[in-house]
Amino acid sequence: MERAPRIVVTVSPAERGPNPERARLRHARYREALERHGGEPVLLAATDPPEVRQAALSSMDGLVLAGGGDLDPARYGRPERGARAPEPDRDELEATAWATAEARNLPVLGICRGLQAINVFSGGTLVQDVEGHEGPSYGSGPALTHPLRLVPGTRLARILQPTFSGRRVVTVNSYHHQGVVAEGLAPGLVASAWASSRSGDLVEGLETDGERFVVALQCHPERTESTPPEFERLFRFFVDACRGSAVARLSRGS
Hints:
The chain has 254 residues and is of the alpha/beta class.
């Protein structure tokens, strides 16, 4: 029987925030999205013991950099100009996880903060405060939504719309107050989706230009009640890519 791919999901400890129950609900959405497609999620926080972190990263077949708070602006060489309550220990965990996945050519999916983290770890910068894109926190009211413009020919567009129907705009939820603009996009990354904002057009989808599966979205596709159904294909493709990593690991006897 084929082994389910082990997928590390980086999160902030539920107890760190003001509402642990709501945090656990957010974490559950990631777990459910991966399990629906046969993945074995392993939630990992910076407060987990070192041996637990090491074991998870050394055995993972794929990585999800999940949503959460702001990255420390020092990570991308900027003074604080609107960033809120950064978590340096989570930044460090995710930088290590990203480097591990990169060294082993593993699939990576970035969600919200995860998109920003991939951009920063790749040498890009962030706009620290974007007006008009931060709706009610998850579980406290209907999601704020906005149009997302897909870039034709990108991996994201091909996954979401395998048969082009003439529609390159989808409506997505919006829970973020930071973002990436064109001049802050890291070298080696490709914009796969855009959204308008008062800070200018935001890169709300990005990916690498190559065979390796590295895709990130600024929205939260795991929150199915405010996400178009075609985004379910993104999780399926990602888990399938991780399954390929798991098979490769077994063939090497590791």
